[in-house]
Design goal:
With 467 residues, the protein is of the alpha+beta class. The chain contains 17 helices and 15 strands. β13 and β14 form a beta hairpin.
């Protein structure tokens, strides 16, 4: 039942949780659960009005009584509250979405008294140096040394294994966006929008070719479609062109199957990044086997301004302008701190700038967060990046432990491409520590996995290292 403190502020109990209004604590089986102030106030308000669905405007007025905020702020608070009580967008045992209206508290609650409304304190500012690592499987930047990078990139470029979607092998190569607006200041859209589309397609459960191999092949010229099919096992290309007319941006895009099929569509918006979600959703509908992943692993924001900043940051990162990219990733993080991949990219920039004191705690935080959420791909990506950091500092034991864990996660998740990379990385550590026999064994295993996935031609760098 609901107990009261001396100040007549109740403790609401539901399931394994207690919401203590006097202490402003959420507890699970007696242990305090971290929860941000706005998320606490949202949960409390929904509990207090649990007899009905509360619309979004009412919640915004209650949580931000003297401020004008976007719906994104409310969505973030709902997400944080759900995470604190073990809910998510799929499992809504405590906070249920009432579509077209708002939210309702639906967990069984002991009867008790209702406290008076309390104005929530201001939410603390986001830390100045947060970070995160990319990847809805970004297959790059694994090992910083030039020779190592060549080896890993070569393995990935030739291996190109795809995941299975409803039993059918499908892999999309997103090409750089052609800037046909006549505006040179929009050069960033080529790689920036390309990367955003990649993230969202992965959120739909669609396997994509990593950006760097695509960019390298585009630069090299030649028969792009045939090369992507041979080296990256791509089954579809996504071509797009950005135009501007009468104050409106138009993104014309074509999904081109390597069997000769083609489907074309056009998206319009007031800003370039505003079209990305619509494009990804349209492509996902055109391709079989697509599906959304957990909302906690959103690839991009609901806010076009944030998405544009994210796209610009990615473009700067690809260009090697890491300090500038890092500053823009920080802007994205401050606006939407729930996004995993901008924090991951921030951490990569810090790592590659050798700012270890920033990169290490951030990567460790991302690993713990992904593990708590059951986000295996994200956990493996962050672990791999932290392993690379330790490797670059000759901390081979720490790097080895992380790469071994990446290998285990990749086997569990069926991520064969990351599994190959884990074996290559372990081989590099074995070679660096003088165990050439073990290094050879790891490389032979990488080749075995590649052959098992139908890749017969392997890069010379891999076979040379094995020799």
């Amino acid at each position: 039942m609901t107990a009261s403190d001396p100040h007549n502020l109740p403790v609401y109990r539901f399931g394994a949780f207690e919401l203590d209004c006097a202490r402003r604590e959420l507890r699970r089986r007696g242990e305090v659960v971290p929860i941000q102030p706005k998320a606490f106030e949202l949960l409390r308000y929904l509990v207090e009005h649990r007899d009905r669905a509360v619309d979004k405007e009412e919640l915004q007025d209650a949580l931000w009584p003297r401020s004008i905020v976007t719906e994104t702020s409310l969505t973030r608070s709902v997400m944080k509250a759900r995470r604190a009580v073990g809910d998510d967008s799929g499992r809504q045992a405590v906070i249920r979405t009432v579509h077209g209206h708002g939210y309702r508290f639906v967990a069984a609650l002991d009867e008790g008294e209702e406290p008076a409304a309390v104005v929530a304190p201001a939410e603390p500012a986001v830390a100045a140096e947060p970070a995160e690592v990319p990847a809805v499987a970004r297959k790059r930047n694994w090992l910083p040394l030039a020779a190592v990078a060549m080896l890993v990139v070569a393995v990935l470029a030739w291996w190109g294994a795809s995941r299975e979607a409803d039993g059918a092998s499908m892999r999309v190569a997103v090409l750089p966006v052609v800037n046909d607006t006549g505006k040179p200041e929009l050069e960033w859209v080529a790689t920036g929008l390309m990367s955003l589309v990649n993230r969202l397609l992965q959120n739909h459960g669609i396997d994509v070719v990593a950006e760097r191999p695509v960019l390298a092949l585009v630069e090299a010229g030649g028969e792009l479609a045939a090369t992507l099919q041979q080296t990256e096992r791509a089954t579809h290309l996504l071509e797009s062109k950005l135009g501007f007319e009468d104050g409106i941006y138009r993104l014309e895009f074509t999904v081109r199957g390597l069997d000769g099929s083609a489907e074309s569509r056009t998206a319009v918006a007031n800003e370039p990044a505003g079209m990305v979600p619509a494009v990804a959703e349209s492509v996902a509908r055109l391709l079989a086997g697509s599906r959304y992943t957990d909302a906690r692993r959103r690839a991009v924001s609901d806010d076009p301004f944030i998405n544009e900043a994210y796209a610009r940051a990615l473009s700067l990162e690809f260009a090697g302008r890491l300090e500038e990219a890092k500053r823009l990733f920080q802007v994205v993080i401050e606006q939407d701190p729930e996004l995993f991949w901008p924090r991951y990219e921030y951490a990569l920039c810090a790592r590659n700038l050798r700012k270890w004191d920033v990169a290490v705690p951030l990567l460790e935080e991302l690993i713990a967060e992904a593990e708590a959420d059951g986000a295996i791909a994200e956990q493996a990506a962050a672990m791999n990046s932290l392993g690379v950091l330790h490797y670059s500092r000759d901390e081979f034991d720490s790097a080895r432990r992380l790469f071994e864990e990446v290998r285990r996660l990749a086997e569990t998740f069926g991520d064969f491409e990351r599994l190959v990379t884990a074996h290559v990385n372990l081989a590099l550590i074995a070679r660096a520590t003088g165990d050439t026999g073990l290094a050879a064994a790891y490389l032979e295993k990488a080749i075995e996995i590649s052959h098992a996935r139908g890749v017969e031609s392997l890069p010379g760098t891999l076979t040379n290292n094995l020799s």
